[in-house]
Every structure is written in structure tokens, then in C-alpha cells.
Automatic annotation (TrEMBL):
Disordered as annotated region, ranges: 245-277
Organism: Urochloa decumbens
Family classification: Belongs to the universal ribosomal protein uL3 family.
Keywords of this entry: Ribonucleoprotein, Ribosomal protein
GO CC, one annotated term: ribonucleoprotein complex
Pfam families per the UniProt record, alphabetical: Ribosomal_L3 (PF00297)
Protein name: Large ribosomal subunit protein uL3m
Length: 362
């Protein structure tokens, strides 16, 4: 059934219920008479932040099924730190740059519960008109990055709530999502003899791509009517192939990917075949990352190990799914700054226990 028909029938059914003494539906504009969306009354004084419900910023008790929001961080880079036992800990530093709630989504209006967070700052001239209108409608500052985090109903926060690094506690595990470093088309430019190219159209089992990249291989020193030649060998770098034999039994195919198909049956290359190609620049999630330290004064988050993305990129941090933190230790739905709390707080480090791991047991 068409959307217009569903909307018309729903409207007629609502009018019949209203005429029979039932609950009267709100009067809708003519543009909504043929809409298939549900008829839900939204108050005008909520600013589009909760679908008519009242959301208060207050602490609560986290249930086992509760789901908190995440945060948007900026990857500052990697370093190393030494814990109190003298062990070296690889550290990735994330900066939680002015995270605030920019929109609240509820089941009454959008059909699900979620919080949209904004991070950073951006000038109005660098934003599109729909983006500026969205921020003005919500009554929040202009933000550089937006991200939506699904939450449960008890974890909703009002629009304008600030999310700091105290949202997490040292010692818990988190999942970090980001865009990996873009490697481009995995290739290697090298010196090639003209006789090798003439004798082997597919030199070394790799692909000959016409790109003006390598200045070591030019059409002047090869005397061929083509652009600069780049030899791409991506299967060993991109997919971790072992490669062909390095000495006996292989001629100019040491880094080749080998056969890519069969003969007449099926007479094609199957999909998802691992071959040379573009590498990196995709979304990846690193799970179960340990929070080693937080710095409330500078809003820095210190994580053990590596996270996806280059320096300066945005990453999204949320509570771990597999290694769930202790609900009694987490601030729920987030950490609210108390009145009179000092600003220059010392960094908080995870509890490493009282047993020296380098001491041999008796």
C-alpha cells in the first residue's frame, strides 16, 4: 500500500475515534494529511531535544542493561609511560575537545533512543546552512564534528550537557572507532629493464600502472611510448601473502599473488579475491582498550596501545561491550561537575595492585 494511502487511512481512523468520544488527536497541517509517519504530539517548548518528555541532568544508578553514551576524541599521538613497577606502557593520548549534547532522539519522535554529541569549534562560514540551522534550532554552539551514540532510556541527557573525560574511569576497558590511515594503492616503484617489460607484459606478476609518479622509470630511459611506470605489488603488503620462492622455481614473480582463477569453468575471477589495491582509509574498531590514566585538568584520555587513525583525526570512544566495566564505579549517565570542585585536579591513574609483577614468588 502506498504511503499516501496509509497516511490517509490513519487520519480517517483518527477522525473516527475523535468523533466517537475517544482521545482527540492534534490538528495537523495539510502537508501531514498524506504522511505515513506516526501521529505523536510533540511539545514546542522542548527545543527538539526530547520529543516532549522532560529530561533532567541528574545522577542515577546504572542497571546491568543500561548503555551510556560515548565521547568524541581527537588523537594527539602516541607516547610511552612507566608505571609504578617500572614497566613500560605504550600510550595513545586522546583529547576530549568540548563535547556537548547537541540533540536527543527518543522513541516518540525518531523511534529509538540516542544522543548526538558535538565536539570542537567551527566558524559559521565553514558550515552549510542546514548545519547552522540544526545548531541554532537546538540552541547549542557551532561544532566541528557530530556523532550519534545509541543509549538506553535511563541514560538520556538534556541538550547542552557537557561530557568531560571524567565520563570514564581509569582501569576500565573501552572500544575505540576511527578511520585508519590511508595508504593509497599499495605499490612499489623500482628500476626495470626495457627487455624485461617487453618480454613480460605483467612484470613480476604485478600490475603495470601508467602514473607519473616515479622519476626513476621514465619513458626516456625505457624508450616506450607510455607515461611513467609504477610497479604495484600489494598482496604481500596489503594481505600478508608469503610470496613466491626467493631463488629456485620462480622467475620474476617473487612478490606475485599467484593464480587468480581457473580456466573456462567458471571463466572468471571470484568476488572478494585478495589482489593489489587501495589500502587503508576504512572504519575500524579496536576493542577492549585499557584506560590507563585520565587528566581532568587538560581533558586528556590515556589509553594503552594503539587506536585507528592518523594524528589529529577524530575517534569515538565508548564503554567496552565484551569486557564490561563495573557499573558501580562508572558515573551514570555521565559525570556532573560538582559546585566548588577545584579545576586543577591531578591525573587519575588506574590501580595496578600491590603485587610487584617483577618479583619472583617464594
Amino acid at each position: 500500500m502506498a504511503a499516501a494511502s496509509r497516511g490517509l487511512l490513519a487520519r480517517l481512523r483518527g477522525l473516527s475515534l475523535s468523533a466517537g468520544g475517544g482521545p482527540r488527536l492534534p490538528l495537523l497541517p495539510p502537508s501531514r494529511l498524506f504522511s505515513a509517519e506516526p501521529f505523536v504530539s510533540h511539545s514546542d517548548d522542548d527545543g527538539g531535544g526530547g520529543g516532549g518528555r522532560i529530561i533532567e541532568a541528574r545522577s542515577g544508578v546504572m542497571a546491568p542493561t543500561s548503555r551510556r553514551t560515548g565521547v568524541i576524541g581527537v588523537k594527539c599521538g602516541m607516547s610511552a609511560m612507566w608505571d609504578k613497577w617500572g614497566a613500560k606502557v605504550p600510550i595513545t593520548v586522546l583529547w576530549v575537545d568540548d563535547n556537548i549534547v547537541t540533540q536527543v532522539k527518543t522513541t516518540e519522535k525518531e523511534g529509538f533512543f540516542a544522543l548526538q554529541l558535538g565536539a570542537g569549534q567551527k566558524k559559521e562560514k565553514h558550515l552549510t546552512k542546514p548545519e547552522v540551522g540544526h545548531f541554532r534550532a537546538q540552541g547549542v554552539p557551532l561544532k566541528r564534528k557530530l556523532r550519534e551514540f545509541p543509549v538506553t532510556e535511563d541514560a538520556l541527557l538534556p541538550v547542552g550537557t557537557t561530557i568531560t573525560v571524567r565520563h570514564f574511569v581509569p582501569g576500565q576497558f573501552v572500544d575505540v572507532t576511527g578511520i585508519t590511515k590511508g595508504k593509497g594503492f599499495a605499490n612499489l616503484a623500482g628500476h626495470v629493464r626495457r627487455a624485461d617489460i617487453i618480454g613480460h607484459p605483467v612484470f613480476c606478476g604485478a600490475l603495470l600502472v601508467a602514473k607519473p609518479m616515479s622519476r626513476r622509470i621514465t619513458r626516456q630511459n625505457l624508450s616506450i611510448p607510455h607515461e611513467d611506470i609504477v610497479i604495484t605489488q600489494g598482496v604481500m603488503k596489503r594481505h600478508g601473502f608469503k610470496g613466491m620462492p626467493a631463488s629456485h622455481g620462480a622467475s620474476l614473480s617473487h612478490r606475485s599473488g599467484g593464480s587468480t582463477g581457473q580456466r573456462d569453468a567458471p571463466g572468471r575471477v571470484f568476488k572478494n579475491r585478495k589482489m593489489p589495491g587501495r589500502m587503508g582509509g576504512v572504519q575500524r574498531t579496536v576493542k577492549n582498550v585499557w584506560v590507563y590514566q585520565i587528566d581532568p585538568a587538560r581533558n586528556l584520555l590515556y589509553l594503552k596501545g594503539q587506536v585507528p587513525g592518523p594524528q589529529g583525526s577524530f575517534v569515538f570512544v565508548k564503554d567496552s561491550i565484551f569486557k564490561k566495566p563495573d557499573t558501580a564505579l562508572l558515573p551514570f549517565p555521565t559525570y556532573f561537575t560538582q559546585e566548588g570542585e577545584p579545576e586543577g585536579l591531578e591525573p587519575l591513574i588506574a590501580d595496578l595492585g600491590d603485587v610487584d609483577p617483577f618479583m619472583a614468588a617464594d
